[in-house]
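Deviations from the work plan: none for this task. Representative record:
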Amino acid sequence: MEQTLLQKYGGVDTIRIIVGNFYSDILESQNLRPYFAHVDLSNLIEHQTNLLSHLLGGPNHYEGRDMELAHRHLSIKPEDFQEVATILQDNLQDAGVEEGDLQVIMNIVAGYADQIIAK
Amino acid sequence: MIHNLVEQISFAVLLIDETSLSVNYANTAAKLWLGDVQGQSIATLFPSLSINTVRNRVMRGKTYSQECVIKELDSVRERYVTLTVKKLDDDASSNQLIVECSDFSKVREQQSILESYANLIQKQSQEIEKAYKKNEELLRNILPQRVMDELMENGTTTPQTFQNVTIMFVDFVNFTKMDVSREPSTLFAELNDIYTHFDDFSTKHQCERIKTIGDSYLAVCGLPEANPNHAENIARLAKEIVTYLNERNTQKPIQWQCRIGIHTGSVIGGVVGIKKYIYDVFGDAINTASRMQAYSEPMKINVSPETRKLINNDEFSIVSRGTQEVKGKGSMEMFFLEH
């Protein structure tokens, strides 16, 4: 059986580290912080863990509409979406994800832009 | 230089007055976490502190330690810290206390991540469990329960000889000649509907449907579980089938005429095939039952002497057809079971 990206890059420990840093980096950004003023942060962690696991081919409960639902009421600006994508990419790179795999993952993320950025 | 160091370390350090507990000095991290704290009392800054206990412990020369939550200044994040208070040991006897806060939010966050992940795995397990159960159900449609249990437990089943088994074949008269102007899918749907009813009747009478081959339906009683009433059960099943079809024929345009044959004997039953398999039965008794069906007549139940012996009671009305030459069996007396 083919190895999932998750298995290739170290399993649950990798999720733990990437999500931990992704979470911190986003909350430390002055641009992005205001989005989270009234968000239950434990929900955010759950959402991010689900997302990472989904992107890496691990166990997940991701449903196509999750992204849209989670961001619907937030009026996300395109530059903020880009900032989050960049933070994610940086953290994946820090964790040693190879260029080819990185491309695949970031393409999937780019595909979410439609669902996330406010119309 | 030391001052520079204290300014730059990443946990909060405060120096407070021993008596008033108000802040004399706060490092950069403390100001970042708590804002402009100069002159404020730690009782105000950390409302959850048990101030008397702090004073008492520190007075006895001990360190006071407690977990606190600091809401960040813009109210986005909560910082979980371990707070310690102790007397400052210095030459100048400045009567100050050191307050340290170290942030363990990261630990909590990591814990949250692992909990989330564990939940994902559990949900996945539940889905796998559901799929497994569905699989089992599908398999149960093909194999008798006991055979399936054996297969699940041992990974394989062994064919078995069953001594006292009654066998019923049902087929439909002129099926191949049935009105072909009708859409085949209609015929198919009706046959399916009829077979579903047959299956329900089988279960009702403790019989086991083995298989269908085109327009032929085969059910038995007495395997894989032995059954002392195997012949009677099959007899009742056959009667119910004829009754059902008669009823159905009065209500629907397509007329289904069945022929039923029944025989009793010993049978070998087993799983045939490896990747694609069914549970099937073999033996001379099967052939005889098939013969009984071939020698039956439309909407009639033809029964062999062996079966007839076992249903020789008031419940069943049986009429002899006399002795006939039966292909492959020689001379045989056969019986109609009235319904």
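Chain A has one domain: 19-116.
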